[in-house]
Design goal:
single chain; alpha+beta; five-stranded antiparallel beta sheet; 3 helices; 5 strands; 25% helix; globular; binds adenosine monophosphate; binds zinc ion
Length: 116
């Protein structure tokens, strides 16, 4: 299922180009166009889900696969042991701007807590 107006569905289908680093039947990962760390990758389910608020039981496996992809990419990029940040923003207060759920994987520098 995809949404005709969704940027990340268009990246998933290949209609809009992106610097993809991983692609499977269920999950796609590509480099963020405006990176906030030496490595900043977005990991998305192929199927369109707008926000965390829209996640249903049937989506659980796909959501879990986002985290499997995150740890695999962290290992490949070489910062798995050093540590990294994985986050998903939901709606306006958290700064979500693209309404197709995505994990941000940030690595290659130290991070502060709490985030801004
Ligand atoms: P969020 O604010 O959590 O919704 O994150 C959306 C992210 O998508 C931001 O970090 C943007 O820099 C990134 N982004 C927007 N358009 C593109 C694009 N065409 N290719 C790659 N990343 C993008
Ligand atoms: Zn979408």
């Amino acid at each position: 299922m995809s949404n005709d107006d969704c940027l990340f569905c268009k990246i998933a289908s290949g209609e809009i180009p992106a610097d993809k680093i991983l692609e499977s039947d269920d999950v796609i990962a590509f480099r963020d166009i405006n990176p906030q760390a030496p490595t900043h990758v977005l990991i998305i389910p192929r199927r369109h889900i707008a926000t965390i608020n829209d996640i249903e039981d049937a989506d659980a496996a796909d959501l879990g696969k986002l985290y499997i992809a995150a740890k695999e990419i962290a290992a490949k990029e070489g910062f798995a042991e050093q540590g990294y940040r994985v986050t998903m923003n939901c709606n306006a207060a958290a700064g979500q701007t693209v309404f197709h759920v995505h994990l941000h994987l940030l690595g290659g520098r130290d991070f502060t807590w709490p985030p801004g």
